[in-house]
Amino acid sequence: MARQSLRENLLDAGFRTIWNSGYAAAGVRDIVAAADARPGSFTNHFASKEEFAGEVLDRYFAYVGTLVEKALAQDGTPPISRLRRYVDVITSKLEAHDWARGCMIGNLSLETAVHSEPLRLQLVDIFERWRQPFAACIAEGQAAGDISKTFEAEDLADFLLSSWQGAMLRMKVERSPAPLERFKKIIFSTVFAKEPTP
C-alpha cells in the first residue's frame, strides 16, 4: 500500500483539529503536531493557514455531499420523507459528538466570514452548490403536489439550510438535541407538510 503523503497527513490532521477546535484555536503548530510532522513542514505545502482552511473546507463539503446524495437519492421515497431523512442522518452524526461539534461549514461561516474574504467567497459558493440538490428534491415534491408552490424551490432550500444551521448553533450552545427536534417538528408540520388533497 502506498504511503500517504505528508500533505495528506496535514490535511487529515487539520480536518480533525479545525472541526474539533475551530479555525482560530487551530494553530499551525497544533496541526503539524497532530500530523506528527516536523516544524516548518506546513509552509512547504501551504502558502497560508487561510489557504489550508480552504482545502479542509472543500474536503468537508465533499463529505457532506455524500450524505446529501445518499439521503436525497430518488429511491421511491417521497421528497418530504427524503428531506426528513437528511436531517435525521445529520442528527445522528451530531449525537455521536454529544451535541457539541456542529457543522464545519456553519462554524467557519461564523468564524471567518468577517476576517477572510477568500474563505467568505468560498462559503458563498458552497452554500450555492449545497442548495441545488435540496431545491431539486423540493421541486419534485411541488410537481407531485406534496409541497406548496407558494415559494420557489430554491428559496425553500435556502430557508431549510439556513434554519437548520441556526438550530445546530442553538444545539451547540445548549448541548442538547432540543433545538433540532423543535426545528423538525415545526418545518415538517408547516413548510414541508404534505398538501391536503382537494
UniProtKB/TrEMBL annotation:
Species this chain originates from: Mesorhizobium ciceri biovar biserrulae (strain HAMBI 2942 / LMG 23838 / WSM1271)
The protein's name is Regulatory protein TetR
The molecular function terms in GO held by this entry are:
DNA binding
Q: Which domain of life is it from?
A: Bacteria
User: Cross-referenced PANTHER family, in alphabetical order?
Assistant: HTH-TYPE TRANSCRIPTIONAL REPRESSOR NEMR, TRANSCRIPTIONAL REGULATORY PROTEIN
Where is each HTH tetR-type domain found?
4-64
Q: Which UniProt keywords apply?
A: DNA-binding, Transcription, Transcription regulation
**Phylogenetic classification of the source organism:** Bacteria, Pseudomonadati, Pseudomonadota, Alphaproteobacteria, Hyphomicrobiales
Keyword match Transcription: yes
Name of one Pfam family that matches? TetR_N
In which residue ranges does the UniProt entry place its DNA-binding region annotation?
A: 27-46
Gene3D superfamilies noted in UniProt: Tetracycline Repressor, domain 2 (1.10.357.10)
Alphabetical list of InterPro entries matching this protein: Homeodomain-like_sf (IPR009057), HTH_TetR (IPR001647), Tet_transcr_reg_TetR-rel_C_sf (IPR036271), TetR_C (IPR011075)
